[in-house]
Specification:
The complex is a heterodimer of chains A (289) and B (388). Chain A is mainly alpha-helical. Chain A is built from 13 helices and two strands, in the order αββαααααααααααα. By secondary structure, chain B is α/β, with parallel strands linked by helices. Chain B has helices at residues 2-17, 52-58, 71-80, 83-86, 97-102, 121-128, 131-137, 159-162, 188-199, 213-228, 239-247, 258-266, 297-310, 313-323, 331-337, 344-360, 375-387; strands spanning 26-29, 35-41, 60-66, 89-93, 106-107, 138-139, 142-143, 149-157, 180-183, 232-236, 253-256, 272-273, 280-290, 365-367. In chain B, helix 2 (52-58) links the parallel strand 2 (35-41) and strand 3 (60-66). In chain B, helix 14 packs across helix 15 (331-337). The longest helix of chain B is centred in the C-terminal third of the chain and has 17 residues, at 344-360. Classes of the chains: A mainly alpha (289), B alpha/beta (388). The interface between A and B is large, with 48 and 45 residues.
Amino acid sequence: MSHGRSARWLLFAAPIVFVSVFLLIPLALTFAISFWERTGFTIKPGLSLDAYKVFFSGVRLIVMQKSLGFAAVVTVLGLLTAYPIAYFLALRVSPRISQTCLFLFAVPFVINPIIRNFSLAYILGRTGPVNSFLTEIGLIERPLDWLLFSDFSVILGLTLSYMPFMIYPLWLSLTGINRRYLEASWILGIPPAKTFLRVTLPLSLPGVFAASIFGFVGTFGESTVPIIVGGLGYQMMGNTITSTLDVLNYPLAAAMSSVVAATMLLFLVLWYRMFDIQLFLGKITLRKF
Amino acid sequence: MDNSRREILKQSLVTMGMLSTGLPAMNSAFAAGKGTINFGDVGVSDPGGDWSKFVNATGWNVNLVAIGNAPSQVLNVLIAGGGRKTYDLMGIVGGMQKPLVENDLVLPIDTSRLTNWNKHTNIKKYVLDDPNGFEFVGWNGEVYMMPTFIQGDSIGYLPEFTGHVDSYGALFDPKFKGYTAIEDNFTTTGQKTALYLKKNNLATIDDPSNMTPGEVKQVVDFLIEKKKEGQFRLMWTSFQQSVDLFVNKEVYVQDCWEPMVFAARRQGVQAEYARPKEGYLLWSLGPYIVNNPNRTPEHEEAIYQLLDFLLDDWYSAKISLIHGYLTSPGAAEYARTHPSEFTSDQAEKVEQIHANVKSKFEMPGTWQQRWPTHVEVYEEEWARFRAA
């Protein structure tokens, strides 16, 4: 085997090994443990469905349904917010402004999520700046309780946390669109709105789906936001899995994790089947259009 | 455009990469060189970072490593995380003997090797002489957790909105609807609620500290009813969150720890800690000796020296001042007679703190339960409460 070929194999094998060791094997172990049996404080290999029975017959299934609902709402809100931002950054402003703005959208990533959410809790609190301002200008007589520790604050917190993640794939997808298509549409006299709906939006769909995956997966497993701004024991899947670990119920935690992973995998397969990954990466070929 | 895309991706990756940097919090006292005692602790055993008295006297270093106090975290560290080889001591709230001893994770403490043990009469009076107190630190007649710090918990309140509070009932009082908070903890909150229900004849509960599945369900049904009525503003999960609730006047009454009230006062809020007629939730915190069969006799001796140091008056005075716990009976006297180390105000404060905690033990109450017999029912029912 030549040096070049060996290097290529090494290049190919390294990520495969990495993903196998750090992702696939732990996932497989999690799946296997979900069938294990509990013996006191430890577990032993087995083929028990008890953990799945407990999960699908108990209150935790409701938590999963609720998490899916929240994840869907936040994903839609995130897209509705992130898409216009990505659109303007990709197609309407200069690269310099675009660069600066995208950099600024990365700033929230360097702030600890706990600190970020504590700040949000302060802003939305009964005596926080929002309620104080609204009271000051006479719009409300007494503080709005629902601003914090409510569905509203959880959805807002989750949207603020994951929307920036969604901007990047959308922006990548939009910048990958060949401008000649847009120009051709303009030359043919197609109104801008129609050009957007018939050309830009369809061509950016791989980015939309990628952004949805980022938003949905992140929100679905989130635990910090519900804890800090959710109020009364707000639970999403991440919290309920942690809770079962409090009593060392590893098989149940593994069963829930497996169901969550399977759900996410389903979405990824859907994405893979519906969209060409090359399209998302911006390698648009004339053959396809 | 391609160049700018690459540039932006590069910048973003650099920014996001900063996320992954971080160092584990460790507080070490490295000076001498006989060896190191690894002390896993929930964050209250550190005497202001100064271990020099122990290090100079013994030649052993103390490596204090922050760990979580949740029962599962402690067990996970020792069972699955290789903690038996890493830690010598685990300083946590007691009541964990059942899972720790049954899994052979900790060793009994030979109190005859501790010269300060008998001087620390608070341990005998407030913990060992009470059968429930002994159960909190011992197992099968042997002591497993050294009760270095002793405390009792109830609820905090803001008197400007509530007036004087002397019952857990304030948490459930419709007058404060939407202005109360509870801790997201199925043992402590469940236990305080059970105390309230039992003492006020609102439910038939034999032992609030170790309820049967039916009793747990009764308690959770009551909490769900209150939750649906809008009684609670939230369930807090961290110290800061609880303090902020008082500082921002988000709630007027909350199930919390006394240090949270102290913290709120330091920020200018007039908060009080209730003396509930139903009694306090009593507890103690201290180290367990981790069972490591490969430990040398010298290392074991050093561990006992450290345990003895934790009962010492200087250390006790320091911890009482920092956290407000009842410690050794000689702490206040030591502070008073060592003006180069403590001011007279500090000495007086230690005395007040001790008197305050002692008075809590004069009330009826119950020892905190960390690992009830039906712990899984507690967890399952708490999940039902959260989801309701």
